[in-house]
Structure formats: C-alpha cells, structure tokens
Design a protein that fits this description.
Radius of gyration: 19 Å
Order of helices and strands: EEEEEEEHHEEHEHE
Shape: elongated
Structural class: alpha+beta
Number of domains: 2
Strand content: 15-25%
Distance between the termini: 17 Å
CATH class of the largest domain: Mainly Beta
Helix content: 10-25%
Length: 244
C-alpha cells in the first residue's frame, strides 16, 4: 500500500475538551495522516464523531462515533441533503432576489431564487421553506454583514465532500452493491467563513462525519490525497498515531 490516508478519531481526545453546542458531552479532535511510501507526508487535525452516542441538545441527530474500518474514497463532489437545514442547496449555487420584489423595501422582500442545473430559476422559500430574512440573518452570523450573497455559502458540508465506501471486491471502484458510507470528510460553513475572514478556525466534533480545516482540505487535495480510489483506514478510538 504505497499511499493511504489514516484517520485516528481519538488521537487528541481529552476529558477537558468540551464539545461546542452540547451540554456536558466531552471529546476532542482526531489526527488525519497521509502516508506515501511508508512516510507521513502530511498530518492534520480533523474532528470526527464522539466515541459514544450522545443526544444533540439542539434537537438534531445524535452525536455518533465515526465508523472504523478500511474504505476507498469516491470522487469528491458538492453534497446536499434535506436532513440539514441550509444544506438542501449545493455550495456555490447562484442565488438572487426575485425580480418582482426588487423594488420593494428590504423588510418587505420575502423570497430568493436559486439556479437549477438546467439554468432555470426556482424559489428557495417554496422548495425549502427558507426565507430571505433567514438567509440574511445567517450571513450576518457567519460574516458579520447583513446581505444577500450571490452564491449559496450556507451548506453545512462545505463546498466539497469526500465520501468513501467498503470496497468488497478490491477493484478500487464503487460497484452497485457498494453503497457510500453515511459519514464523509467535509468542512463546515462556519469554518469556511472563519478562513475567509482570517479568523481562528474553531474545530468541533461532528455527528459522525470528519470535520476538516478548509486549509488542510486544500493542501491534501493538492497532494492528490483525496483522489477517487485512495485507500482510507479509520482506526479505533483507542489507537493513536505513533509514527513520524
């Protein structure tokens, strides 16, 4: 195995690390290592799920452990899901005010259009129940300015998700009987905003996926570490990386 990604979800776990957004659950970050020809050519902090299942005080899905085992990476791609608010639309999708509302005062505008893959425009409010005001408020939370951006930058999974699967026949390609795992590597809208503004990146545990610093994602992408067919080994929580 000349090249492989290794993830140690419990590498930095400490009892003193308190998870942001939870009441009293505790955990910490993990370590992602890209190994080439037996040497660790890149190491980065990456935050997976908690080592035990905990309910989300905010009412979302439970915090769950990141699945361990051997996987193979699929082709990185923008991700969307109806399971998370603001993540129904892919990152970078063009958005704009509804033409009929352009002459209204700001407080009277209610909807936003987003562009479909076929080039047509559709209503964000009608399709997802998200108002223009909610979009502007969330932009203010992330970027400290109340405005409607030109593209969708609110997807909780960031611009790109790196998904993976169990390669049952060892051909390094995803076949029909090899579903993608529910967990994946991704950044967050909050961390993307922090990077863009030059602020400190504040990493937190995920609900089972693996959160990455946007800068580390770019560095590993440049190293071709996230190409499809790459081996990924996710180690048990009680194992730590001891190499160099």
């Amino acid at each position: 195995m000349p090249e492989a990604l290794h993830y140690y979800p419990g590498h930095f776990h400490k009892a003193s690390d308190i998870i942001s957004g939870t009441v009293d659950t505790r955990g910490g970050g993990g370590l992602l290592v890209f190994i080439r020809d037996g040497k660790a050519v890149y190491k980065s902090e990456a935050w997976g799920g908690l080592s035990k299942v905990y309910p989300d005080p905010g009412g979302g899905p439970d915090y769950t452990p990141t699945p361990t085992g051997k996987f193979v990476l699929d082709t990185p791609a923008a991700y969307r899901t109806r399971s998370w608010l603001m993540s129904e639309i892919k990152w970078g999708t063009p958005i704009k005010d509804v033409p009929s509302e352009r002459n209204l005062k700001e407080e009277n505008k209610t909807d936003v259009w987003y562009r479909l893959p076929n080039g047509k425009w559709a209503s964000v409010y009608k399709d997802f129940g998200i108002t223009r005001q909610l979009i502007i408020e969330y932009h203010n939370d992330l970027y400290r300015t109340k405005k409607l951006p030109s593209t969708w930058i609110f997807n909780a999974f960031g611009p790109i998700a790196i998904r993976y699967f169990k390669d049952l026949n060892g051909n390094k390609k995803r076949d029909e009987n090899e579903p993608l795992d529910g967990s994946m590597f991704h950044t967050t809208a909050e961390n993307e905003a922090e990077l863009k503004q030059g602020n400190t990146i504040k990493m937190t545990n995920s609900h089972g996926c693996i959160h990455m610093n946007p800068s580390d994602r770019e560095q590993l992408t440049a190293l071709n570490a996230f190409r499809d067919g790459m081996d990924l080994i996710i180690h048990p929580y009680n194992k730590k990386f001891t190499g160099k």
